[in-house]
Amino acid sequence: MKRSLAMIALMLCFLSLWGQNDLSQYTFSYSVEQDEEIMGGTLLGNTTTDNQYFVNPVMTNGSTLYTQGSGFPIGFDFSFAGQIYDRVGINANGWIALGKSSYGEAAVNMFAENSHYPLSSESNELPHEDQIARIAGFARDLQAQAQSSIRILSRGAAPNRELIVQWKNYRRQSATGDSYNFQIRLQEHLMKVSVIYLTMQTASAAASEVGLRAAPADAATNFATRTTSLGWANSTAGAAANSTAMLSSTNYPVPGATFTWSPLISSSIQSNFCAEPLSGPAPLLVQFTDLSTYTSYPIVNWIWEIGGDIVYQQNPIYCFNTPGLYSISLTVSDAMGGSSSLTRDNYIEVLPSELPGLNTYIQMQGHDAVISWDPITTDEAGNSFTPDYYFLYFNGSNTFSEDFYFLAPIPYPQTTFTHEGVALGADHMMYRVKAIQLED
């Protein structure tokens, strides 16, 4: 029975993950945006470019042989079909592939049975199935001509950064009279994919693949393509990965026509943090550590409220100069608009700097406090002596003015003690240690 339940749970987990990967669940929208040609970024290729792969930033003219490389940085973590990508490769035939820097020099792998039709190509050659992630703006057999270029540009500030890949004045292989101008954009906010058509001039009818593709690699079953038989402003979802969008002199996108695919917002994010030390005399230097978690989209913003200040670092260090109890808040958010907040009331206690007898160091290990101190070799009068024991005293109340009580004897010369489970019940933790010499 237990085995059956475990198998059911595993299947549900698999189905849940696959649902996140399903491109058919992306929502599609059409709009007409500003017709903006980019002029900056990195210039790729030249006027003779034909079938080149651009997979290495140092090879700006690309290669028809090398289909894998370190790729170009996206500039942010981009969530696509349930995976996180940070690199991109470009093919002159109107499409890009997503990759991961964790794969090193093979971060991007653009191998395809037919580089003219990347969305419908199937492959058993990819070492990592998630490298089949591809986006086609106008994918078919394209070629550069006079005044042609490809540019890649990452711009903006978090959480609204975007990557733009632009094709300018491309044409069909050996055709005359074509001028294809379009962009693929990856947007950090809401993790959207957009294709913006600038001027799309064609001498005769031309079909292309337009849309998205993701794993599996060996079967073109996970896709979101578009067809334009009813016009570019009234495109419909393709029934297959090899469905095509038709461009002609009477059926073409207006400048600024934009196809946008957006993932369903199903972000789960949970704010959490810890700090060390939790108490001590002023000035008290505290290291805060973000422990927040997410299941779908990476956290991109951290907003701490510490000591009356707002801090935007992920793991800040803060100095408390004034004694008192301090509540700490952390709000985290992701690029999908999901957010979570956590407040720990009276979390940090800063003691007066003149409070006598605090001569220990505290380091937390889970709920246990590891107490340490410097060796004591003089008595209260300053005379040298060798103690027999260290007596450790503890105050775990909600005010430092309460009395300390005897916690444990520690044989000399040991200078550490683990106070197990103290964090489960103490309002704060203060320790004093005294050197004791037994009488003969």
What is the β-strand count? 35
- By DSSP (H or I, 4+ residues per run), the number of helices equals 1
Output mean pLDDT: 89
User: Can you tell me the number of structural domains?
Assistant: 3
Extract low-pLDDT stretches.
1-20
> What does the radius of gyration come to?
31 Å
Helix content: under 10%
Task: Give me a quick take on this structure.
The chain has 440 residues and is mainly β. The chain folds into three domains: 242 residues, no CATH class; 91 residues, Sandwich (Immunoglobulin-like), CATH 2.60.40.10; 85 residues, Immunoglobulin-like, CATH 2.60.40.
Provide a descriptive summary of the structure in words.
There is one protein chain. By secondary structure, the protein is mainly beta. The chain folds into three domains: 21-262, no CATH class; 265-355, Immunoglobulin-like; 356-440, Sandwich (Immunoglobulin-like). It is 5% helix and 45% strand. The protein has one helix and 35 strands. The strands form eight sheets. Strands 3, 5, 6, 7, 9, 15, 16, 17 and 18 form a nine-stranded antiparallel beta sheet that branches. It is elongated and about 105 Å long. The model is unreliable at 1-20 (pLDDT under 50).
Secondary structure layout plus pairing:
Elements: H1 2-21, E1 27-32, E2 42-44, E3 53-54, E4 68-69, E5 72-80, E6 83-91, E7 95-99, E8 108-109, E9 134-139, E10 142-143, E11 149-155, E12 162-172, E13 179-187, E14 192-201, E15 206-213, E16 223-227, E17 236-237, E18 245-247, E19 257-262, E20 269-270, E21 273-276, E22 279-281, E23 284-290, E24 293-294, E25 299-306, E26 309-311, E27 317-320, E28 324-334, E29 339-351, E30 361-365, E31 368-372, E32 389-395, E33 405-411, E34 416-419, E35 430-436
Parallel strand pairs: 22-29
Antiparallel strand pairs: 1-19, 2-11, 3-6, 4-8, 5-6, 6-7, 7-9, 9-15, 10-12, 11-12, 12-13, 13-14, 14-19, 15-16, 15-18, 16-17, 20-24, 21-23, 23-27, 25-26, 25-28, 28-29, 30-31, 31-34, 32-33, 32-35
